[in-house]
């Protein structure tokens, strides 16, 4: 009897300690916020001290996990309220899954400011965006990426890059990592848009090597660096700065030597930034400002689109009915093309209606940026709930795109769901919305469309690991980076 009693006491003590420790996070924020504010928080679970719900998040997003299970648990336990409290990687967080609320937060720059720990450190080390009005910075970054006239100028060289890339991959004796190879193609494209086409190949290769170290860290939604990676990442950031500083100085010397023909010399976006002056004739952008802008542009126009383009090739290859529809459209466009013209035109791209639906579905199904992050600058009251000042607000875009109440059978890849369909405001957010709408949105679609045009007509893919797991950290990708062979089809 005494032994049984002792066992019960020990078990009871362990459970008591367990539940006490489990509630420490709740108790801490109750004391910090006060009972009135704490009681008005959205439902949810702040989890364990320090780590919060981070382990549950990691399990859902690691290779072989179900990335939607994290949100599904919140909804099943707390109902469809659209907002949930949590604690991720040391920060108290309000997770938002309701389209209307998400849209409101995106559009409210006064009450919500961006909160990307890594992005701030790596892309704004020179403090550019603290010195410059955001709309001005956005306009500078977006100007070479959007608009009919601008995009049409990019078509011919992107067409050439994609065509040559596929041809080269098809001659490889060994399988290629498609994600890495696509990334290299897109890197060449965005560097040409921003730096021009006179950058020496060794400089270009070195710049790409450094950015391959930096890119995943920028895209990561985790606020912590793994042991040993921080020094490597910041070393890469510094080296990129040194390379670009040399490029900028050389361009300045060339432009200064030939001032009388400056209009003819200004060819790329960097040239425009170098020669820009204010009304008093003072230089608008120093080298550090230009480097910061370039890194932001490079991320928007290269790294993220590479993930999307990889999934585009995967989906078009494994869905025969989708492939057939897309092929019929491409063959019709080629049939209508005058025999005297070589290469794609922007007019032809605009005729690719089915492929545009394919891209819309791709960006919904594979939400590359799972979430967008803000920080509340004051206590904000939404739908009878409070978002406390200083808390992270996570706009969980994937939850919206994979919500069966908005998209029937959301796991299914179905371009036909976009037939005569326009989503309601806030229900389709692959590039965000408002003042921080991704400046690379149209360029991303252009990359994917041109790549698919050549692939559909002339190539097929054979994956080495057709049942390879998918990981969602830092973005959805195949664990083997889509190891495959690209095979050219006989004419």
Structure description:
Residues about 15-20, about 125-135 and about 220-230 have low confidence and may be disordered. A five-stranded mixed sheet has the order 1-2-8-5-3, covered by helices on one side. It has a three-stranded antiparallel sheet with strand order 4-12-9. It has a two-stranded antiparallel ribbon with strand order 6-7. The N and C termini lie far apart (about 85 Å). With about 500 residues, it is of the alpha+beta class. A hairpin with a 2-residue loop joins β6 and β7. It contains 21 helices and twelve strands. It comes from Cucumis melo (Muskmelon). Pfam families: p450.
Number of helical elements: 21
> Can you summarize the main beta sheet?
5 strands, mixed
Share in helix: 55-70%
Helix-strand category: alpha+beta
User: Total strand count, please?
Assistant: 12
Mean pLDDT: 83
Question: Compute the gyration radius: what is it?
Answer: 25 Å
Low-confidence stretches: 13-18, 125-133, 221-228
Cα(first) to Cα(last) distance is 86 Å
Beta-strand content: 5-15%
- Write out the strand line-up for the largest beta sheet, numbering strands in chain order: 1-2-8-5-3
Keywords: Heme, Iron, Membrane, Metal-binding, Monooxygenase, Oxidoreductase, Transmembrane, Transmembrane helix
InterPro entries: Cyt_P450, Cyt_P450_CS, Cyt_P450_E_grp-I, Cyt_P450_sf
Cofactor: heme
Main location: membrane
